[in-house]
Amino acid sequence: MEAMKADARTSPIRLAFAAIQPILYGWAIVVVLGIFAYTVMADSPALGTTSWQDVAGITTGWWLTAFGGSLHFDGVAISLPPLLITLLTFVAFVGFVRKLPVRDWIDILVLIAASAAVPAVLGQITPTGTSWWQACIGAATMAFLAVLTSKNRTDWLGTGFFTTPAGRAIYDGLMLGRRALAVGLILATLVFVAAVIAGWSQIVTINSYYILEWHSNVMLWVFQLSYLPTFILWTLAYLVGAGFSIGTGSSFSVLGVESAPLPAIPLFGALPQPGDGAPFILAIVVLVLLFVGMRQARAFPALGEAALTGAIQVGIVALGCSFLALASRGSIGPERMSETGAEPAIAAGMGALILGVPFLLGMILAHRTSVAKYREVLGMAKDKASTIRAKAADSKQSVVAQNAHDTDDVQNGGSVSAPVTRGNGQGNHHDETGSETKLVVTDEGDTMEDNGGESPSVTVDDTSTAITAITARTAPDAEGKKND
């Protein structure tokens, strides 16, 4: 009996109700806030003959933009999605679906169909010209992603194709791509917060242009905060170099900033000033992703597996950046303001280059095979350096030993070079052993030898006296005779 109960399919009505609740609750909160704002400003001449029913319809049309719809009123199209509403609805959807057993694709289709039906029904009370069918597609996509997120990944990706080597590589690449995108979003959030802090004075100045009561001012900031995730995605496009625009003729990127007249929205005071941008930020982002990729390298035993999975990760990052750019793109007014956000194609390319490729390189450079190769090359370099140092030391010792030997020869009466002088003449005296002795010959014919060696031949060139080998030998005899 318990086994039959465990295998029982969840009622489609229960599944549909679980899908409808988070979307319907989100719509109700938005409409209530809109009617509250209308009530506190009911005496404003700007409202004219607007009724609360009109406010409910306009607010519903604006709520549809959170899922991809487009609001049209007074000839103006608003389609930029307030992604905070989308995100909160997604989280609530995950919470509702997590409690239910979703067994197969039939259950998933029930959830998707119920999610798409809500915008289709509520879209009927929106102003004429409002596009609600895109919101149906967006709500269905959100429901599908929420179902995948709400369950254990092994329920969906642990069987069938994903158990093969190719399937596991795709699965691992998907997880790594999600991690790379998460790091990029964290960096974008930090940069956005820093920009708001740096530009706070400008934000306050723009806000002061509006002379509002406190409750109206609160509603203005609630409206801006609903676009907070949208602004963070714009910051991500800014960081990777893809850039984003707020109306035609403007571009905000780390590679350069070109601005044009902007609407007086307070948070736009955090935008960077026109100029050359800050390309060094690209280097910081690349280094961070390189480091994160290096930390993932240890999970793969083979270098080829790491390279393949990392390459799949690059593709996932490109698709993710393109999707995020598409989700944060839309219109906020007529003419120039009909184009805001990042270009999906450019975001895909720059996201893959700045986020995906460094992540892949980090995985390759820090892999155990690469590290072993580094150590091998380093060991060879050390051995070669040691050999060179050893040869240099041996050569130095040989030179020192030769110098010491020469010094000993000189001290023991070895070979020295010395001139022979007589008056103003000089010459060399070589003994029979080849040693050289300095002879000093006076004008009277006397000679003196420094070390008393015999000289077989001495030739001294002197302009006044020429001393030959004979006279050099007889010089001592002449000295002796003189003394006698």
TrEMBL record:
The keyword Transmembrane applies. Coiled coil: none annotated. This is Uncharacterized protein. Keywords: Membrane, Transmembrane, Transmembrane helix. InterPro entries: DUF6350. Residues 457-475 have a biased composition (Low complexity). Residues 392-484 are annotated as: Disordered. Residues 443-452 have a biased composition (Acidic residues). It comes from Flaviflexus ciconiae. Pfam families: DUF6350. The chain crosses the membrane at residues 12-38, 76-96, 108-125, 131-148, 180-200, 220-240, 252-271, 277-294, 306-326, 346-366. It comes from the Bacteria.
